[in-house]
Amino acid sequence: MIWNILTFISFGFNIQTILSQSCYGLSDLQINNVCYHFVDQNMDYTNALANCTSIGYSLASIHDLNTNTWIQKHAASTIELRDAQYLWIGLYNPNNTWQWTDGSPYNWSNIANGEPFSDRRYFSMHVADGQWFTRPGSWETPFVCSGPPYGQGSSPTSNGYQISTTDSPSNHCPRNWGFFNGTNDCYFLKSYYNVNNTEYANCNGSIRSQAEQDFVSG
Ligand SMILES: *[C@@H]1O[C@H](CO)[C@@H](O)[C@H](O)[C@H]1NC(C)=O
Ligand SMILES: *[C@@H]1O[C@H](CO)[C@@H](O)[C@H](O)[C@H]1NC(C)=O
Ligand SMILES: *[C@@H]1O[C@H](CO)[C@@H](O)[C@H](O)[C@H]1NC(C)=O
Ligand SMILES: *[C@@H]1O[C@H](CO)[C@@H](O)[C@H](O)[C@H]1NC(C)=O
Ligand SMILES: *[C@@H]1O[C@H](CO)[C@@H](O)[C@H](O)[C@H]1NC(C)=O
Ligand SMILES: *[C@@H]1O[C@H](CO)[C@@H](O)[C@H](O)[C@H]1NC(C)=O
Questions:
Q1: 77-123, pLDDT tens digit by residue?
Q2: Which residues form the C-type lectin domain (predicted)?
Q3: Which ligand 5 atom is nearest residue 160's CA?
């Protein structure tokens, strides 16, 4: 995570707000320009994927051993995840083809010996050793999402949240700013905010609802 201090700023006139080149959560892991977001809540595969999608990510795709090891160690050492034995990842088998939920190439795997079971279509990572095991989709476990840092890659569109990738987007937000339809405002999270900087003269950090708080805090 690149931001140590997260300051919330917003512009007046309803352009108000957002995020740039940063991951969704403060405790997200950023590796080779990919953000990994851990959710320590038991969910079945469908809901876990929907939860990742809601922040513009997908369930995590993993393409090399180093990244797999980073994720495994991070999960194993994160207090919140210490009790979680498995994490859903994005590898699944919708039609006899193993593929990643984010559509990236399936070009590396860490599948455990004896796997996959033909009747189980969804993979989880065993936090103890980083190996991948299939589980039925109805099984509920914590999960890890991945996606590009904000300001890069494609726009998240679900849950009312979008990142502008052009200068004149329909949501009126500046490029790389995020739009939250709950407030109809634009948001930008800065790592540092000098209140005396005239550039931010029209910014204020007002947070007016729990939904806005959730949106801003990730
Ligand atoms: C902050 O901006 C919002 C949206 O423009 C506005 O409604 C609110 O009154 C402002 N708050 C302050 C303290 O200026
Ligand atoms: C995703 O999971 C987090 C953590 O449990 C929760 O706070 C958030 O509301 C969920 N988002 C959706 C869209 O379900
Ligand atoms: C089914 O498999 C093909 C590859 O054989 C893939 O292109 C397609 O997207 C898959 N369908 C779904 C729903 O994932
Ligand atoms: C596998 O795919 C990922 C994601 O597109 C890419 O970054 C990586 O270079 C690929 N690895 C190999 C060995 O092709
Ligand atoms: C915001 O967008 C979401 C997803 O597109 C939609 O379900 C929701 O109704 C929208 N909320 C408002 C206030 O427009
Ligand atoms: C901001 O300006 C005020 C008034 O001029 C000054 O007292 C304060 O020290 C300044 N703060 C910073 C962080 O520069």
A1: 876 666 779 999 999 998 889 999 999 999 999 999 999 887 889 99
A2: 31-146
A3: 2
Q: pLDDT grade, residue 207 (50/70/90)?
A: low
Per-domain boundaries in the chain: 29-147, 178-217
Question: Please, what's the largest Cα pairwise distance for the chain?
Answer: 62
Q: What is the pLDDT of residue 19?
A: 36
pLDDT of the residue at 44: 97
Ligand 2 pocket residues where CB is under 6 Å: 39, 41, 51, 54, 159
Give, in order, the Cα–Cα distances in Å from 110 to each of 37, 131, 166. 20, 5, 38
95 lines ligand 3 (CB under 6 A): yes
> Could you tell me how far CA 165 lies from the centroid of its own chain?
18
Query: How many whole angstroms from 218 Cα to the centroid of ligand 5?
Result: 17
* Cα 17 to averaged position of ligand 4 atoms, centre (Å): 34
- Interval 132-171: pLDDT, tens: 999 999 999 999 999 877 655 444 444 556 666 666 556 6
- Taking the CA atoms of residue 15, residue 16, residue 20 and residue 25 in that order, the dihedral angle to the nearest 10 degrees is -140
For residue 184, give the amino acid letter.
Answer: N
Fold observed for domain 29-147? Mannose-Binding Protein A; Chain A (3.10.100)
What is the pTM for the complete model shown?
0.60
Decide whether any atom of ligand 1 lies within 6 Å of the 206 Cβ: yes
